[in-house]
Amino acid sequence: MAYVTETEAESPAESGSNDSELDARFLALIDADERIEPTDWMPERYRSTLIRQIAQHAHSEIIGMQPEGAWLTRAPSLRRKAILTAKVQDEAGHGLYLYGAAETLGIDRAELLDRLHTGRQKYSSIFNYPTPTWADIGAIGWLVDGAAIMNQVPLCRCSYGPYARAMIRICKEESFHQRQGFQIMMTLAEGSPDQHHMAQEALNRWWWPSIMMFGPSDAASIHSSQNMRWGIKRFSNDELRQRFIDATVPQAELIGLTIPDPDLKWNDERGSYDYGEIDWEEFNRVIAGDGPCNAERMERRVTAHEEGSWVREAALAHAEKERVRREEVAA
Ligand code: FAQ
What we know:
Blueprint: H1 6-10, H2 12-15, H3 19-31, H4 44-63, H5 65-69, H6 78-103, H7 109-117, H8 134-152, H9 161-189, H10 193-212, H11 224-229, H12 237-254, E1 265-267, E2 272-274, H13 280-287, H14 294-307, H15 309-330
Antiparallel strand pairs: 1-2
Helix pairs in contact: 4-6, 6-9, 8-9, 8-10, 8-12
The protein binds Phenylacetyl coenzyme A.
């Protein structure tokens, strides 16, 4: 696919326009709720913020395979093992769609992975927490996938076409993931006192990191206002966090678990739950690389990448052989 690079598209000689006209046309498409496609002109900051966000999202999907992958050999039944294997494979697929969507912005996947491996790009804070029990797998599906859906359903209407389209399939799969996680938690919560306790402990571990997943408070969010203007974000971090809390509290009540927040209280006037103070120091520490599992996650990722180099080399050699064969046939 040939990309129209920004320099080409911006060139007055080619477009017969100057930047402000191009910018006005771009904003008119956004205001009309049309999609921006890879060959459309776009401001460089729109392109770079999308590369940043989509790449961070893709990295999160593939690093997110690790905490659950750790339980593939220890799932409590064959059925649970088969379901978990399918879920972890789905996350790899999500990474694939998202790296593909990022590549339509004119950046190479190898470059994105290099940025991840050298710490120049982030992945979600949530995947730096450990999974010491089977109940943690339930908590990830219920809370982490639940939070991911809340954040990602609006991204299906994101202004950038390839990202929006990738999100449609991803959200359908996340919805299955969320239900399987809730079902694990429900089974444990209704089981023996020890199983119930295990589920409660996992909820205690994952609740606060899950609500941090939505990102910093609106007051501290540096990208929000521009990204909302550009139709990348449809709702702010705090709005989505509140929706997640309002949707999840009744689910915890239904299965007899307690959200670990003494300040959680229904507010009749707002029609929402009030909740306690988020530990932003912890959030900042985790995204700066100092969470409980950051080093372990990165080491595993870099090792997996290095160990997979023969697959990439074999795929390239095969593609080259095919190219030569096609040329011979055409000649
Ligand atoms: N972790 O100004 P904002 C999943 C960074 S996928 C780490 O508010 P923005 C599926 C942010 O990058 C989970 N960093 O930024 C699954 C920025 O830093 P930068 C991933 C974070 O972009 C389930 C700075 O803080 N989902 O779970 C985090 O407007 C189970 C300032 O923040 C997505 O990526 C964080 N939590 O809003 C897989 C969804 N939050 O880049 C396996 C798409 C913020 O300037 C198992 N992304 N930061 O250095 C988004 O919607 C947005 O990027 C936000 C952040 C909402 C995450």
